[in-house]
């Protein structure tokens, strides 16, 4: 009888052990924080008759409380607010309140920062960029 009990216990112990290892190995992925924003490119094209630029249209969706520190772009950036409320701070200008229907423009090379003003709601914008090919999309300063 003893050997019969052992044969049943060992597969159960081994199965539990391997199951625990598998859950432990993937557990950090289950607990990882979701990204604070998602950007979905909607359209991208070369601009004819202009030297090196391309047009990029994206939808940016942020989490509540999201902020993007000081940075700049090599090209123009236009922001059109779809949902939520935020703010845009462009160096040398007063902070701009962003709400649905607001359009904001950031000229090339201007240092700026943006944030979601809400701690409970998402902030969604349409980004239209005239980007210089070969340059990084964004140069982070913080």
List keywords for this structure.
142 residues; alpha+beta; 2 domains; five-stranded antiparallel beta sheet; 1 helix
Task: Describe this protein's structure.
The chain is globular and about 65 Å long. The strands form two sheets. Strands 1-2-9-4-7 form a five-stranded antiparallel β-sheet, with no helix packed on it. A five-stranded antiparallel β-sheet has the order 6-5-8-3-10, with no helix packed on it. The longest helix is centred in the N-terminal third of the chain and has 30 residues, at 2-31. It folds into two domains: 1-32; 37-140, Jelly Rolls (Sandwich). The N and C termini lie far apart (69 Å). The model has no long low-confidence stretch (mean pLDDT 83). A hairpin with a 5-residue loop joins strand 5 and strand 6 (96-98). The protein has 142 residues and is an alpha+beta fold. It is built from one helix and ten strands.
Order of helices and strands: HEEEEEEEEEE
Number of DSSP-assigned strands: 10
Which structural class should the secondary elements be placed in? alpha+beta
From the 3D structure, determine the CATH topology of the largest domain.
Jelly Rolls
Strand content: 35-45%
Q: How far is the N terminus from the C terminus?
A: 69 Å
Helix content: 10-25%
Q: From the 3D coordinates, which CATH architecture of the largest domain would you assign?
A: Sandwich
Name of the CATH homologous superfamily of the largest domain = Jelly Rolls
Low-confidence stretches: none
Largest sheet, spatial ordering of strands: 1-2-9-4-7
- What is the CA-atom radius of gyration, in angstroms? 24 Å
CATH class term of the largest domain = Mainly Beta
The figure for the number of domains is: 2
